[in-house]
Amino acid sequence: MGAVEHLKALCCLGLPPESAMVAVVPVLHEIIPHDGTRLALVAPDATITTGYSENPASAAIFRERLWQFMDDPTALMSLWVPGVRAVAIGWALHRQGGDYLESGYYREIEAPLGSCWILDAMIGDGGRTIGFVSLTRPRGARPFTVDDVQRLDGLRPWLAYAFRRSPSGDSRQEDEPPIAAAGATVLSGQVVLTPDGTIVYETSGVELLFRILTGEPSNYTRYVPASGRLPAPLLKTLWQITGAANGTCNTPPRLQVSTAYGVIALEAKWLVPAGTLPEDAARDPKGCLIAVTIELREHAIAYAARVLRESGATPAQTKVGIHLALGKTRPEIADELGLQRSSVADHSKKLYQALDVHNSTELGTKIWLNPHQDQAHQGVFPAPYSRMGFVRDKLPYRSYAIAGNSLDEKAPAAIERYAPRGEGGSRAASATASGNRAI
Fold first, then answer.
1. Given a cut of 90, is residue 86 above it in pLDDT?
2. How does pLDDT run across 44-67, given as a tens digit for each residue?
3. Domain 3-163 maps to which CATH number in 1.10.1040.10, 3.30.450.40, 1.10.287.110, 3.30.450.80?
4. 381 near 184, Cβ under 8 Å?
5. Which of 4, 34, 13 is nearest to 148 (CA)?
6. Torsions phi, psi of 329, nearest 5?
7. pLDDT at 415 over 80
8. 417, pLDDT greater than 70
9. pTM surpassing 0.85?
10. DSSP character string of 243-277
């Protein structure tokens, strides 16, 4: 199955729009080579409701700076509202010449993210913009061309179908696979806290993950201060690990939460200061820090579609195969997909032959217990996610206390005490990093 056919199949699977945004990212890379992808759902008043970006640093930079360029006539963002009204595509290309590389927008927004050239497209439904796709390339790459615009334009009707909300606004629940069947990790972050819930360290991907967990909108067209509240699943994980230390809880400090974007997994571990014996730390855990790893994993339906594609299934076979793996009968599948029962039987037979299985039970086992499942839970990206290594450590991690959103004066000393020497990036907050021990 080619990339375009696979994208069309993904867009017709009935995924929640947020999960669809995540699912189409690796396929867009195959169709139009680029470095980073940004997607969003757009309200009728041109505000952004929810968004997703491959670059984990985007959320913080957009929230802090993007709104300042909305009324700057020289900035690309000044074309946002006209672009929304016109359901436009390629509306920023003509601004990426001349003195663009000297502009404040490029210096403050794109350059810190390692991006430069941009291809934007509004996604319309019934003449109204409902979504947004932005593809980026670094400064050393060639700018986008008319051919790229035409390729993206041909995908817009399918993306519109995927981003369209159901009339009730609710995601279907009856077709949901087990939460444990979630696929590869597409975004991850780590936060280091004190036992009382004060953040002293966080990686660049945490802000977007927090927004997903709390359900807060990702509207960057106006100033929105950083939220001061911790997501409930994170608080529950903290309660589990601190409760285990004082004997009030015996539940492992890990959670899996189903969201519109996919499954978010949280796991907490104690950070023991270097040179401290575990038994000494156990007597007074308040003197230790807690590292919580947060991972967003692709929606299980998108994962199943990817597995079937890698097995050589056609788009029609993929749709039938997913329903079979969910335990549906052939008559039910025929009614839901609008197919003849003979067509469903034919697709099923060819699919079983391609995957070397004999029935829907074996097919479900092949999909949900695929070896990639173990790789996903270990943070390994199977193809085509190998091209999604868009995690940049150029920006420094932020250290602050949630209370008052002010810098915690003790945070630098705490990080110096607990973090390994001479290492940066996500390793500094790792629960198993050199120089620290995880209980």
1. yes
2. 999 999 999 999 899 989 999 999
3. 3.30.450.80
4. yes
5. 34
6. -85, 165
7. no
8. no
9. no
10. HHHHTS--S-SEEEEEETTEEEEEEEEEEEPTT--
Phi, psi of 130 (to 5 degrees): -120, -15
Q: Is the pLDDT of residue 38 over 90?
A: yes
Q: How does the average pLDDT of the chain come out, rounded?
A: 80
d(CA 176, CA 264): 15
Domain segments of the chain: what residues?
Answer: 3-163, 179-299+388-438, 311-377
Secondary structure of residue 156 in the 3-state scheme: helix
Tell me the CATH number for domain 311-377.
1.10.10.10
Q: Which two tokens stand for residue 23?
A: 């699912």
Place of tokens 């994208």: 7
Q: Give the three-state DSSP class for 143.
A: coil
Query: Can you tell me the mean pLDDT for 285-294?
Result: 87
Q: What is the DSSP letter of 369?
A: T
Decide: 377 and 293 in contact? Cβ < 8 Å.
no
Vertex 396: Cα angle to 394 and 402 (nearest 5) = 145
Among all chains, which residue has been given the structure tokens 């400064």? Answer: 139
* 20: enclosing H helix or E strand: helix 17-31
The alpha carbon of residue 428 and the mean position of all alpha carbons in its chain are separated, in whole angstroms, by: 22
